[in-house]
Structure formats: C-alpha cells, structure tokens
Give the backbone structure.
Amino acid sequence: MRTTRDDTLQEKRVVLSAAQVQRTIERLAQAIIEPNGASDNLLLIGIRKGGENLVRRIHAEIKRRSGVDVAMGFLNINLYRDDAAPREMPESDIADDVAGKEVVIVD
C-alpha cells in the first residue's frame, strides 16, 4: 500500500511534552547568554514562519533570566527557497544593523 503525503500528515504523535519544550527553551536561552551575558550586542533573528514563535519564546526567557530586552527580528527566506512554491508572508523585519552583532538565527 502506498502512503500519500496526506496520510503522513494525519499521523500524530507527541515528540516533546509542553514541559519538555519549556525546559528546552530555558536551556537554549541559558546557552545563548552564558558565554557573554545578554547585552545590546545580541540579536535574535527568527526565520519566518517556523522560527517566529520559537524566537519569541527564547527572547522572553532571556529577558526573564537577565532582565535585558535583547534585540529581536524576523527574516523572510521565502524568496530563496527552491523546495516549495512561493507563499505570501510578511516581509523581513530586522530593525537593528547586524554588523558587529552576535546574531542567533532561530528556525
């Protein structure tokens, strides 16, 4: 029997519980700020669409741990993809200049 993409998408299983996801976000935030702390030199960039929520959660955790509201932006890579048809997505939104920054890209 041949499995179609639709059949595969309907199969659901929990890979990480909500608590495990939260712990992973906490560990990621700690790993990001541990070497140099949270500073104005740090810039978090989430890849639109999949990385947006994750980068927001990491950003919030860094702020909670350090009290620093580090810079955050979003990058639309849709124009550079060759594996999917173009989709309408919000434009890139990176307010800070990336030159000289410690940039963490989240996807």
In short: The CA atoms of residues 51 and 107 lie 4 Å apart.
